[in-house]
Amino acid sequence: MTAAAAQTDKKPMSKSKAEILDAAAEVFTKLGADTASIDDVARHLGSTKGRIYHHFPSKGVLLAEVCLRAADFVHEEVGPAVDPAETPEANLRKMITLHIPEILRTLPYHKVIIQSYVGMNQKSTTSLERELFKQIRTERRAYEDIFRGILQAGMQDGSFRDQNLSIALQSILLLINAPVFWYRPREDEPASFIPDLANQLSDMAVAALR
Amino acid sequence: MTAAAAQTDKKPMSKSKAEILDAAAEVFTKLGADTASIDDVARHLGSTKGRIYHHFPSKGVLLAEVCLRAADFVHEEVGPAVDPAETPEANLRKMITLHIPEILRTLPYHKVIIQSYVGMNQKSTTSLERELFKQIRTERRAYEDIFRGILQAGMQDGSFRDQNLSIALQSILLLINAPVFWYRPREDEPASFIPDLANQLSDMAVAALR
């Protein structure tokens, strides 16, 4: 996390701001981002609306910052793991093995991201909101590009089958984000569940590309 | 369509009702199901709210019927194609080859379904809405079970790798629904685009399972 934070050259987030984003991610996931209000987030936090407005001038900004943080979480975890000296397959496996536990650790953030896929967050009105959503698209694109680079490298060296790159990329990204749709944390979950899941999805992704 | 309709033993839908559902799917996709109103759907149709209320007593029911029809579209298209005399791989290829064009033909319906994955449609209040959402879950489950059966058969006869069935199933379902997230119809799309896409996703799915 320290290395990743240094690498992306961002100032660390205050604990108070992070707490608000955590609460917002949960509330947006539960009620839907369109329905949920700053009031709902304050209630979930047991805090005042003022505390939220101190950091986030509007619900649109709060939502955008949740989406941005969702993209940052996986990017900061997975990005530094890519090793140009490794094979595309080894890199892809390592990336997926880091991606899966990270999306499950920060699950509500990624559920909010799914809502945004269907175009519901494109109603930003203020210039700050528009700027943030531009940042989110840039950040997502940067994360996707790491995978695109690995897929491309694999197709070039023949370890992956030659196929439509964009379709392959989008399919692999959906495959490794599939748990966001179905995963429910369980008290009696064996400690091996998440590593096993990451292995299975790595195997499926590599096989789908070979 | 006739065979499928007969098989599922449903009375055909009136043209007026189908038109309203088409409009609702588009409006819910564009504005978000939580934000969109019956007024928005009426405006899109160039019709009165009365016409909509004649068929659907509430927005919740309209939303539920959109989701139910989304599940029916693919089920009626893909279900009858399964041939017990065929190998699991041949069946899976045939199913995906039918599934892909069907989700793209009825794209807004499936975008609404994505919204419902994140738990936003669970706020049904009337007993009719609750009953409809129960039907949707049953219908989706029935569709998933066709794929589950094929995956199970393949693992049993050794043509598919032995792995966690639920995870494999959910992953394959996400993989073949991935185009709902990224596909945009284009004027200059070659006629081969959708068949090629279906082939590529069939190849990826079969490879991921073998």
TrEMBL record, chains A, B:
Domain HTH tetR-type: 14-74
Binding region for DNA: 37-56
Keywords: DNA-binding, Transcription, Transcription regulation
InterPro entries: Homeodomain-like_sf (IPR009057), HTH-type_TetR-like_transc_reg (IPR050109), HTH_TetR (IPR001647), KstR2_TetR_C (IPR041490), Tet_transcr_reg_TetR-rel_C_sf (IPR036271)
Keyword Ubl conjugation attached: no
One Gene Ontology MF term: transcription cis-regulatory region binding
PROSITE patterns, A to Z: HTH_TETR_2
Transmembrane segments: none
Any matching Pfam family: TetR_N
Transcription regulation listed as a keyword: yes
PANTHER family associated with the record: HTH-TYPE TRANSCRIPTIONAL REGULATOR BETI, HTH-TYPE TRANSCRIPTIONAL REGULATOR RUTR
Protein name according to UniProt: Transcriptional regulator, TetR family
Organism annotation: Shimia haliotis
Origin organism lineage: Bacteria, Pseudomonadati, Pseudomonadota, Alphaproteobacteria, Rhodobacterales
